[in-house]
Amino acid sequence: MIKREVHAHPDEGKGWLVGPWDSALPVAVGWADRGVGDPHRHDQMNEIYLVARGSSVAVVAGHRLELVAGDMLVVEPGEDHTFLSSSPDYLHFVVQTPFVAGDKTGPGPL
What we know:
Elements: E1 7-9, E2 14-18, E3 28-32, E4 46-53, E5 55-60, E6 63-68, E7 72-75, E8 81-86, E9 91-97
Protein backbone atom coordinates (compact mmCIF):
# COMPACT_ATOMS: atom_id res chain seq x y z
CA MET A 1 0.00 0.00 0.00
CA ILE A 2 1.32 3.47 -0.89
CA LYS A 3 0.83 6.16 1.73
CA ARG A 4 0.62 9.83 1.00
CA GLU A 5 1.39 12.44 3.64
CA VAL A 6 -1.17 12.34 6.39
CA HIS A 7 -0.06 15.38 8.34
CA ALA A 8 1.93 17.75 6.13
CA HIS A 9 3.35 21.07 7.26
CA PRO A 10 5.12 22.30 4.10
CA ASP A 11 5.63 25.80 5.52
CA GLU A 12 7.59 24.18 8.37
CA GLY A 13 9.47 21.85 6.02
CA LYS A 14 8.23 18.62 7.56
CA GLY A 15 5.42 16.11 7.66
CA TRP A 16 4.33 12.66 8.77
CA LEU A 17 3.78 9.80 6.34
CA VAL A 18 2.34 7.04 8.50
CA GLY A 19 1.78 6.22 12.15
CA PRO A 20 -0.54 4.75 14.75
CA TRP A 21 -3.17 7.40 14.04
CA ASP A 22 -3.95 5.74 10.69
CA SER A 23 -2.44 2.24 10.85
CA ALA A 24 -1.53 -0.61 13.16
CA LEU A 25 2.17 0.31 13.00
CA PRO A 26 3.76 0.99 16.43
CA VAL A 27 6.02 3.59 14.79
CA ALA A 28 5.65 7.00 13.18
CA VAL A 29 7.51 7.84 9.97
CA GLY A 30 8.10 11.45 8.94
CA TRP A 31 10.41 13.75 7.03
CA ALA A 32 11.99 17.20 7.17
CA ASP A 33 13.71 19.24 4.48
CA ARG A 34 15.49 21.77 6.70
CA GLY A 35 17.12 22.24 10.05
CA VAL A 36 14.38 22.86 12.59
CA GLY A 37 15.50 24.88 15.62
CA ASP A 38 13.27 22.98 18.06
CA PRO A 39 15.27 21.76 21.10
CA HIS A 40 13.40 18.97 22.87
CA ARG A 41 13.58 15.40 24.12
CA HIS A 42 11.42 12.31 24.28
CA ASP A 43 11.23 10.34 27.51
CA GLN A 44 10.08 7.05 25.97
CA MET A 45 10.65 7.15 22.20
CA ASN A 46 13.78 6.56 20.16
CA GLU A 47 14.18 8.62 16.99
CA ILE A 48 16.10 7.27 14.01
CA TYR A 49 17.07 9.90 11.43
CA LEU A 50 18.09 8.77 7.92
CA VAL A 51 19.76 11.54 5.91
CA ALA A 52 18.70 11.15 2.28
CA ARG A 53 20.42 14.19 0.75
CA GLY A 54 22.33 17.33 1.67
CA SER A 55 23.89 18.09 5.03
CA SER A 56 22.81 19.33 8.45
CA VAL A 57 24.18 20.19 11.87
CA ALA A 58 22.49 18.58 14.86
CA VAL A 59 23.10 18.82 18.59
CA VAL A 60 22.37 15.71 20.67
CA ALA A 61 23.01 15.62 24.42
CA GLY A 62 25.36 18.59 24.08
CA HIS A 63 27.37 17.09 21.19
CA ARG A 64 27.49 18.91 17.86
CA LEU A 65 27.20 16.49 14.93
CA GLU A 66 27.65 17.19 11.22
CA LEU A 67 25.43 14.93 9.14
CA VAL A 68 25.63 14.19 5.40
CA ALA A 69 23.67 12.07 2.96
CA GLY A 70 23.88 8.41 3.94
CA ASP A 71 24.27 9.10 7.68
CA MET A 72 21.97 7.65 10.30
CA LEU A 73 21.47 9.30 13.69
CA VAL A 74 19.83 7.49 16.62
CA VAL A 75 18.52 9.68 19.44
CA GLU A 76 17.67 7.71 22.56
CA PRO A 77 15.01 8.55 25.17
CA GLY A 78 16.05 11.41 27.45
CA GLU A 79 18.59 12.92 25.01
CA ASP A 80 17.97 16.61 24.31
CA HIS A 81 18.32 17.28 20.59
CA THR A 82 17.72 19.75 17.77
CA PHE A 83 18.86 20.56 14.25
CA LEU A 84 20.64 23.90 13.94
CA SER A 85 21.03 24.31 10.19
CA SER A 86 20.85 22.49 6.91
CA SER A 87 21.91 22.82 3.28
CA PRO A 88 19.31 23.99 0.74
CA ASP A 89 18.97 20.45 -0.67
CA TYR A 90 18.60 18.75 2.74
CA LEU A 91 16.13 15.90 3.35
CA HIS A 92 15.88 13.38 6.18
CA PHE A 93 13.38 10.73 7.17
CA VAL A 94 12.67 10.04 10.84
CA VAL A 95 11.23 6.96 12.54
CA GLN A 96 9.86 7.31 16.09
CA THR A 97 9.67 4.03 18.00
CA PRO A 98 7.87 2.94 20.02
CA PHE A 99 5.50 5.76 19.13
CA VAL A 100 4.06 7.43 22.24
CA ALA A 101 1.63 10.30 21.66
CA GLY A 102 2.60 13.45 23.57
CA ASP A 103 6.12 12.21 24.40
CA LYS A 104 7.85 15.51 23.65
CA THR A 105 9.34 17.78 26.31
CA GLY A 106 11.15 20.97 25.54
CA PRO A 107 13.03 23.02 25.19
CA GLY A 108 15.79 21.05 26.80
CA PRO A 109 19.29 22.18 27.72
CA LEU A 110 21.67 21.63 24.84
